[in-house]
Amino acid sequence: MKAIVCKEFSSVEKLSYEEVADPKAGKGQVVVDIKACGVNFPDGLLVQGLYQMKPDFPFIPGSEVAGVIAEVGEGVPHLKVGRRVIALCMLGGYAEKVAVPASHVLPIPDAIPDNEAAALVTAHATAHHALKQRANIQPGETLVVTGAAGGTGLAAVQIGKAMGAKVIAVCSTQEKLEVAKQNGADILINYTKEDLKTALKNVTDGKGADVVYECVGGDTFHACSRSMGWNGRLLVIGFAGGTIPDFPVNLALVKGYSVVGVFWGSFTQHQPKEFQQNMQELIEWYLAGKVKVIVDETLPLVDAKKALNKVMGREVKGKMALKP
């Protein structure tokens, strides 16, 4: 089969498109014929050696796929060949086939297109887990989303609205803010045009935010850390701006809020039952029109480098997908 292979931690440009051996379904696994694969910011970090996980070489990046089951391993009675599914594979998604633990495979209805199904897994599931399990967000609370036009930021806007929050979208351009508005954002802040800390104070009537879904890091994180409300939850999602900030812990003490790490990949490993329940709820919300997957562009698998560069350059509105 064809796949995108990483042979050393380096720039995205060093990835190669080549022939590799087909995977086989081990015990408790299935092999999925991939119809689409989602492209995520952590994929770019991973191949550069900048992510928490450091796989052995060579490896195939790509953590979320949609496709059809081609082979079922021993001990998997509930899944059949020919079943259409989405799967969380952690690695191996940028390929024509992948072997995945059956616990991380979920049947999907035909109403969800392949590229949207693949893109539903990581971004929406991260936002859903963050707001549900980590923040326990409640109807009527104020939710600030930074990077609100990116894949997981846009998902947080949609899911925050579905859970009854008042959503404040924070973006770097008016064009991105319009995308966030179209997906349910109530208040828009362009942090390149106005001071973010002052703007957040004004739009929350001085009370601060109940929940912040923080994807950017750097100065954006610092502004949010000074804009939290009492009993607030500052969710640490990622650092798309490239700078991992230092946090003055006295702020959490004085303002009485929590800083909460969100690592969805570990959640799926530690709490697979809750992961399955979350995904089922997301699919139900999708079918009910409460959430939608915005796919900016779907490119052929051979163009994975182009897709990754677009994601890493924060040029994407929604998600990117690859099609073998």
TrEMBL record:
Domain Enoyl reductase (ER) residues, every copy: 10-322
> CDD domains recorded for this chain?
QOR1
**Pfam hit, one:** ADH_N
Source organism's superkingdom?
A: Bacteria
Q: Which InterPro entries match?
A: ADH-like_C, ADH-like_N, ER, GroES-like_sf, NAD(P)-bd_dom_sf, Zn-ADH-like_protein
Under the heading PANTHER family, the entry gives:
QUINONE OXIDOREDUCTASE-LIKE PROTEIN 2, SHORT-CHAIN DEHYDROGENASE/REDUCTASE
Q: What's the protein name?
A: NADPH:quinone oxidoreductase family protein
**What is the organism field in this record?**
Aliiglaciecola litoralis
